[in-house]
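Input chain follows. Return structure tokens only.
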Amino acid sequence: QCPNCKKQCRSAEAVIEHLNDADTCWPENLINRSMLPVPQALQRPPEQTNLSAKYHPTSSYHYLLLDQPPPQNIFQEMQGHPLQQARETNVWYPFDGLGEWSLAKFLVENLSQTQIDKFLKLDWFQTRERPQFKSKDELFFFMQQLPDRGPKWQCTKLKLKGYESEQPIHLIWRDGLEVTKQLFANPVYANHMCYDPHYIYQGQERQFGEFWTSNDAWAIQVSSCALDQLPEGATIVPIIAASDKTPVTRHTGGLEMHPLFLTIGNIQADVRMKATSHAWRCTAFMPIPTFIVASEFQNLLRARLWHKCMDLVCSNLKVAAHIGEYMVDPSARLRYCFTPLISHIADLPEQLMISCSLCDRVDPWNLIVFVREAKKLHLSGVHLPYWRNWRFSNPAKSLTPEILHALHKFFFDHVLKWIKQIMGHELDVRFKSHHKRTGVRHFSGGVSHVNQMTGREHRDIQRTIVPTLWGVASPDFIRAVRAMIDFIYLAQNPLHTESSIASMTQALQDFHNHKQAILDAEARRGKSGAKDDFFIPKLELMQSFTRAICNVGSLLQWTADVSERLLITHCKHPFERTSRQRDFVLQIAHILDREETIRLFDLYTLLSSSTSTPGQDPLINAIIMEDNEVASTETDPTLAWVSNVNPVAQLRLQGPRPVRNHFLKGILSDNARIAFNVTVKADRSRLDASQLQSLYNVPDFSHAFHLYVTRNGYTPPGQLSFNTWSKFRIQLHSAFNACRIMPSQQVHAEPPSSDFPGGNCDVVLFNQRVDSVRSYVAQVRAIFQLTLPRGSRVQVPECLSQVLLYIQHFDFIVPGPEPSTGMWMVKRSYTRDPSQSERVIRRGSIIPLTDVTHAVEIIPVYQGPLGKDVNSGNSLEVFDDYFLNNFADKELYHSLSVISET
């Protein structure tokens, strides 16, 4: 039903179409303010009809205060700057133009004040035009004239009652509520926002994804307690915090601090999860001082100070959570907002510091007595946790399970060590021999020698670790490892259903059912030898994952990957440009203010210099919806927004380029759900059949091609020639969200060379058109297309004019997946050479490129120690039996699970 005219519509999409129609029922003064995006919960392809949603009926009203001026988002406020008139003719005012602004930005972002002065006094300027600013003071005065609406940084000196520190304690911070308002009012995220709790149903099963689909979102909006009830029409602005200790300088005795980052849960998870999307804001640098106390109390006092700093930074957010705050959204609409803390992302040591509990039995400032009593109750020594008076805050829920440390670090610290213990050097030998695939990390030096790895490297090892164990570990040992990898993969699903949650729970149970094999192999070891227990805190925490998904949504959105990246990109650079003098903290505050000013002014100039589409407000233009995996417009919504408003100006904005959409100009499968791409110009042109057969070492190519054309009822002319390619790209829609396009994958089919004696040839899944239900495995040996002599008027049917593949088959070893690895096994298929019946060759055939459904990975079925003659260049040629690796990537893991079920 339309909320304005009460017109009855068939669906939510029909309501949106009605409101966006030219004859809309919106009041006249609201027309063209913005287009209403389809809610993310209901974005789906036309053929997917089993998805439905129930939105909260009284959440997130818009308000109009009659005695107040119209609300403005942050860029509309920037356009109201006193110098706006001067910028009508020169958008970079007070700078002379783009060149001078670029120079000013470079100097401010990369040089200290002393270095700026030295640069501006260089003799180089004697023969060249000087910028308008002649010194650092003039440059900084110019910077102060820019339209800046960001919350200001400030410094506050702190003390802990009764305890002295070696150095003064300074907190560098800005108001958490003002940071939240800036994020909430940023039009860059206009089409990436959600304001309403909702239930999503996939058939009869409830779906959990964004926070808004979780139990807690609905519970906050409609509390069962009358005293905690939000008013009708209230908008939830979920606060998400992330923090971690990090060194911010590289000097001897470098400075360590606790940076705090904030974002809001209204911004879609796949946007805010990208560090380059600027959806996170650095809000505070909390000090880590050295107190003049006994060493056993040092960490306790630091923890108390951290909570005191958090109290100060978040004090206004707590007030807003209790009584509400009017905020302007990206589309310049006023909402009555409440700010509950829903997640604090941190590693395990920091979670322990955050999750302290109250203890009022003794004086908390009598440390010796207080700590002794707290330990008796298994409590920390922090008596005033920052979350204690934050409405709706509950550390049992807001300390969400964290994928990077709880799973990937657990795998590296424990599972990988167990495997190293039983495999020894053979582990490295096998990893070195794995076939190299474009876009996948190849461990050419092995994995056992690396003491520290990134989260990405942890994931890359997890891809192939299960089949690599074959032939060394016992079946139950492999089952335990496979169950843990299953659990890790399922826990990372961006969308969960009740069935997938049950599968995840079962995977963890399977690990516990078979973990005794790890102890029997004496793979779990400590300093004194083999251990006979699994007392591992992170393993215990995994029991809470199921409950957490129901409470706060998909766990992937709470990973620390983003905050770990922000520690590198946002925290250390400002501290390296200071003079380290007495006003050190003030210098930092000024530097941070200038960085914020530069970022906002860059967007302002791009928008102001654009030529917007007539009849549309560029400030609230729609954002292009793209993919999220590698480099997309959602990775940087700013880039998407500017590219939509002013494509030329996009080239001046740094950020990841969008994923290329091959569905627009590529070759499409019969159902248009898969796109393929080959280059316009072939790698090799006009090879005859014998040349192709010899070059690619495929002796039955001519016979296979003859069977293909005969089967399609065509008699080819006498002389044939072919164009060939060394690779093609395949692009799929996401297995979790059918509206999202995934980055393309390369499939190689290169002729034999010194590095690849049998050819560099990847493996695919394909369906035959006569049997579109079953899937088959094959290695692509040649990518080719029939070409006719120039000037020929011969009509070639479509089945021959399209791009074709010569493949060599693998047969599934039935009746099902191998029990311990859970993977299908395939065996290379052989046949007799049609030209020499006594000779056995690999079975090959021709299929259209569009029959391919997935790029896949196969791993050899190792039968004992690997010989020195096997390497990454021939591992797909010297074996006959292989595992079809369903852990190659998370999308394929889900797809192969579906294929196996059918």
